[in-house]
Amino acid sequence: MRRSIAVTLAVLLTIGSSSPLAYLKLGAMVNGRVIDATWRQVPIGYFISDRPGSGVSAADLRGAAERASATWSRVASANVRFTFQGMTSAAAEGFDGQTTLGFIDRPDLDRVLGATSFLIDTTTGAIVEADIFFNSHFAFSVAANGQPDRVDLESIVLHELGHLLGLGHSAIGETERNASGSRRVIGSGAVMFPIAHSSGAISERVLQADDIAGISDLYPAPAALDTGGIVGRVTKNGAGVTGAHVVAFNPETGILVGNFTLNSQGEFVIARLPPGPYILRVEPLDDADPDSFFPAATDTDFRVAYAPRMVVAPLGGSSPSIEIRVLPK
Amino acid sequence: MRFVAILLAVLGLPGIAHGQDAPTLPRHHFTVGGGVVWSGGYDIGDATARLRGNGPGATPPDVTLFTAGSRITSAISPELQVGFGATDRLAVEFGLAFTRPHVAVAIAGDPEAPSQELPGERLQQYVIGGGVTWQLPIRLGTRRLAPFVSGGAAFVRQLHEDRTMAETGQIYYAGGGARYWLRGGHGAGRAVGLRGDARVNFRRKGIDFEDKMRIYPTVSLSVFVGF
């Protein structure tokens, strides 16, 4: 029997503010090194819990899951496939050897639409099981064109399946605070942005460039080799900035792909970019709660800044490192 | 600039006098020239970084994160030319120029940052091309000055600053200018002179964010020697 130490992680999609642990990619500590947590067997089999949600049935969830899993599977530069294994009476929580998606009523989590939890083999970094629950406290919709005052279920499934595959949250998005103190999305550049669009919106059924770059980095298909990367440092007063969000924008194609400075040197890597020149924009993590991206403290005391020049992501390689200097607020 | 004034006079006042004594190119001989060329700047496209807006339906209005207007700056570069006189008025020419223009980027419309011009990256740009000049059968006051019209095409290769990616394109041009013979030009002795060109260039491909035909001027001044 395989010796493994199970760890669990949970990643939530919220409608306001939230907390837990996440990275752009989920990581597992193996032999002192952090490696990507990924599924090692394809296709990924999943069950649908037979418990109904608010306004939608388990069969509706199955349909939404099939559409959302097909959306991830259609990414040409990623090797991702799912297979539906059947309905189950089991709840979408706890670890029972099967990956389950289902509704659970959690009125205590009044800002959480859904969450994904994992069982990871810490000797290999392999995801061995994951469950996704959708909070029945909210009214969902599976209408083709969406419904006012109901959250589009397929959009939420698509986001949570991204977590199930090993993606953390993306920070490409802008929000504003409303009177209750929660955040409302103004616009987002990724399905994996941690705060959902408003009720009635169905645009989040479509992956964006940032999602595609992320999944292609985790499960690269041959087409993913026709990409390049950009590396660099973000500094403030000569010192590295931790947790800065760096967005690469290709003015020719219009795509936006982001990543973070992940160490105290302020170093970042943006991988799986279509080759070409990019404009780099750096911003503090102030459009969602920073702890929905990192467990550690991040530096948000700096102004938005741009790299002094465009940087090329070369085919099959990475750019020379570029330094982007930011100023305190 | 005196040279520009001469060129404008050439282009604007053709046919001042018909001359029988205007100097001509040495037929079936080569001419070698070298000088400097000034290339005017031109836009290479505006782009908007957009976020998917939060609204009902499948295609809500986008939200602008920022806009970027890009431009290749003007630059001065060395230029080499080799010509062959097919007749005493028609010459076939090949040219090579190396330039280091900047790609300047102007950022605007960012709600979280002021509008700003980024220093930009410096390109290495090579232009290799060929064309023809036709010396006009007119004389401009002095026997030593002869106007011509020109046209041709060139290949442009633009290497980004990190030298990890090159982009290529084509340039088509039309223009005119004048040669001023310091010596020779009438079949006796080696021809030596000054030459000025003004061209309108039509560039396709290369670094461009909208894939449009771009138009920009060049003005050059060179010394030529006939062999």
Q: Please give the share of residues in helix of chain B.
A: under 10%
- Low-confidence sequence ranges of chain B: 1-20
- Oligomer, anyone? heterodimer
- CATH class value of the largest domain in chain A: Alpha Beta
Give the helix tally of chain B.
1
How much of the sequence of chain B is in beta strands? over 45%
Q: Average pLDDT of chain B, to the nearest integer?
A: 88
Please trace the helix and strand order of chain A, writing H or E for each element.
EEEEEHEEEEEEHEEHEEEEEEEEE
Structural class of chain A: mainly beta
What share of the residues of chain A lie within helices? Answer: 10-25%
Helix and strand pattern of chain B: HEEEEEEEEEEEE
Major sheet size, sense and barrel closure of chain B:
8 strands, antiparallel, barrel
Strands across the major sheet of chain B, in which order?
Answer: 1-4-5-8-9-10-11-12
- Poorly predicted regions of chain A are 1-9, 14-23
What sort of overall outline of chain B do the alpha carbons produce when their principal axes are compared? elongated
Radius of gyration of chain B: 22 Å
CATH-level-4 superfamily name of the largest domain in chain A: Collagenase (Catalytic Domain)
Major beta-sheet overview of chain A: 7 strands, mixed
At CATH level 2, the architecture of chain B is Beta Barrel
CATH topology of chain B: Porin
N-to-C span of chain B: 30 Å
Give an overview of the whole structure.
The complex is a heterodimer of chains A (329) and B (227). Chain A is mainly beta. In chain A, α1 crosses α2. The longest helix of chain A has 16 residues. Chain A folds into 2 domains: 211 residues, Collagenase (Catalytic Domain) (3-Layer(aba) Sandwich), CATH 3.40.390; 101 residues, Immunoglobulin-like (Sandwich), CATH 2.60.40. Chain A is built from 3 helices and 22 strands. Chain B has a single domain, classed as Porin. Chain B has an 8-stranded antiparallel β-barrel. Chain B has a 4-stranded antiparallel beta sheet with strand order 2-3-6-7, with no helix packed on it. Chain B is elongated and about 80 Å long. β13 of chain A pairs antiparallel with β2 of chain B, so a sheet runs across the interface.
